[in-house]
């Protein structure tokens, strides 16, 4: 047994020794264990601890917090996108085949640093799930949602450790661009109805995300048909991520924008961002929060703030809202 443990440890350290020596002393890069533990705690908190802590508590009012959070994430994503462009993709990088530059040239080091910040951004996105839980939107924290966010930091760590640059950074380039648009959308959405008229393109955002994953899949798998000095293991791993995320968002799209009854029955509302929405169905049913309240032909108090109220008219003088349904009182 001792021999097996020693052999396993030797293999483990041998694999780590093959990592890029330039990043060995960077934060969280010496070992995958801290990243793995954080990801495991995220999964536990998202599925067990978080909902348990909120079980007997009222949803938090997070409108202003979400506006600020999405604003910061928009700027952060824009900066990372710019750095990816300036460190390779705007000039010297090839879309057909791009090996990793392991040199200490200023451009190669700039790309490596950008990869680290992209890795760090995967941890900041954990707040997406936290805000769902604090607002008691537990249906949004689906299995695929948790897999998506929980796997990304570890996956990016692997790329950062062994290949901080090159072909697969196209995935991060597209992903950060989509996040610019996405976080901006959710920032405006959280600002209230007076601003939501400017985000009429909401439906196309999910389509945009799915196109991203198809592009990532195609860009990675082209290396199967050409000679390229880039690790094919990373290529396959990133391509599989594209398939997983495409499934996640296509399922969300079917539930959100089509009348697919089977999709609704097996719905996955695991959108990746903390959405603030006010929706009214065709038959007058109000699809909003889980809060109960009385409708007096005027206003319904919103969960988002004391000042932000949404007006609903269901044609009756008095009504009572219970579990997203408006019922006339006799």
UniProtKB/TrEMBL annotation:
Signal peptide: none annotated. It catalyses: a very-long-chain acyl-CoA + malonyl-CoA + H(+) = a very-long-chain 3-oxoacyl-CoA + CO2 + CoA. It is a multi-pass membrane protein. GO terms for molecular function: fatty acid elongase activity. InterPro entries: ELO_fam. It is found in: Membrane. This is Elongation of very long chain fatty acids protein. Its EC number is 2.3.1.199.
């Amino acid at each position: 047994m001792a021999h097996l443990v020693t052999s396993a440890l030797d293999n483990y350290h041998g694999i780590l020794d093959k990592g890029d020596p330039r990043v060995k002393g960077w934060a969280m890069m010496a070992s995958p264990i801290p990243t793995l533990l954080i990801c495991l705690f995220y999964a536990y908190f998202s599925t067990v601890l978080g909902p348990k802590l909120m079980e007997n508590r009222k949803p938090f009012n997070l409108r202003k917090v979400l506006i600020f959070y999405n604003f910061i994430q928009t700027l952060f994503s824009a900066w990372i996108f710019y750095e990816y462009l300036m460190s390779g993709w705007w000039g010297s990088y090839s879309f057909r085949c791009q090996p990793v530059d392991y040199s200490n040239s200023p451009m190669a080091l700039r790309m490596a640093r950008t990869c680290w910040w992209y890795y760090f951004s995967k941890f900041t996105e954990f707040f997406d799930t936290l805000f769902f839980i604090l607002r008691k939107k537990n249906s949004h924290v689906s299995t695929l949602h948790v897999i998506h966010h929980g796997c990304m930091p570890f996956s990016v760590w692997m790329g950062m450790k062994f290949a901080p640059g090159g072909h697969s950074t196209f995935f991060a380039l597209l992903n950060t661009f989509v996040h610019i648009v996405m976080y901006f959308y959710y920032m405006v959405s959280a600002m209230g109805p007076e601003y939501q008229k400017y985000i009429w393109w909401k439906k196309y955002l999910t389509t945009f995300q799915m196109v991203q994953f198809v592009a990532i899949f195609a860009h990675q798998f082209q290396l199967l048909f050409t000679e390229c000095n880039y690790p094919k293991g990373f290529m396959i791993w990133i391509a599989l991520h594209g398939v997983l995320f495409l499934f996640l968002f296509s399922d969300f799209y079917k539930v959100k924008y089509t009348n697919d009854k089977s999709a609704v029955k097996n719905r996955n509302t695991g959108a990746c961002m903390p959405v603030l929405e006010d929706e009214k169905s065709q038959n007058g049913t109000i699809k909003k929060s889980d809060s109960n309240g009385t409708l007096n032909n005027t206003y319904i108090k919103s969960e988002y703030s004391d000042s932000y109220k949404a007006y609903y008219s269901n044609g009756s003088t008095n009504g009572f809202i219970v579990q997203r349904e408006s019922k006339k009182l006799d």
